[in-house]
Amino acid sequence: MNIETLRKDMVAAMKAKDKPRKEAISSLVSAVKKVAIDEGCRDDIPEEMVDRAILKELKSVKEQIDTCPDSRADLKAEYQFRYDVIAEYAPKLLSADEVKTILQEKFADVLATKNKGQIMKNVMGELKGKADGKVINQVVAELCQ
Predict the structure, then answer these.
(1) In sequence order, what are the residues at sequence separation of 6 or more whose Cβ sits closer than 8 angstroms to the Cβ of residue 124?
(2) How far apart are CA 13 and CA 88, in angstroms?
(3) Which stretches does DSSP call E strand in 53-97?
(4) What is the pLDDT of residues 73-111, one digit of tens each?
(5) Please, which residues have CB within 8 angstroms of residue 111's CB and are 6 or more apart in sequence?
(6) Is 10 within 8 Å of 25 (Cβ atoms)?
(7) Helix (H, G, I), strand (E, B) or coil at 131
(8) What is the dihedral of CA 13, 17, 18, 20, to 10 degrees?
C-alpha cells in the first residue's frame, strides 16, 4: 500500500460526504506520516513503512474493540467500522501453515537447535510485517516441542 492511494481514497470519501470513512482513512494517513517523520523520511515514504503503520493502527483499533464495554454498543460499532475500513488497506498476513512452511525451508538449521529465543531472533527479521507475531510465536513453540 502506498500513501498516495490512501490520500486519494480520503479525498474520494470527502467528496462522497462519508465522514466516518474519511476519518478512518485520515487517521491512517496521520499514522503513516508520524512514522515517516519519526524515521526521518518525510517525502519518499516506502510501502513497507506504510504497511507497518497500517498494521499498527489495525492492532490498536482491535484493542479498542476488545476493551470497549458491552454497554457501549454505539462506541463498539464505531470502532468496528474503523477496523473494517483499516482492514481494507492492511497487507494480507501469512497464515500459520505458511509461516510453518517458511520456517522449515529457510530456518531448518536454527530450528534444529530447539532454542526458541534464538529461533525467534532469526525469524522475526524475515517475517516482521508479513505475519502476526503471535502466529509466529505459536508456530515456533510448536516446532520446538
Answers:
(1) 133, 136
(2) 14
(3) none
(4) 999 999 999 999 999 998 888 888 888 888 888 877 777
(5) 103, 104, 119, 143, 144
(6) yes
(7) strand
(8) 110
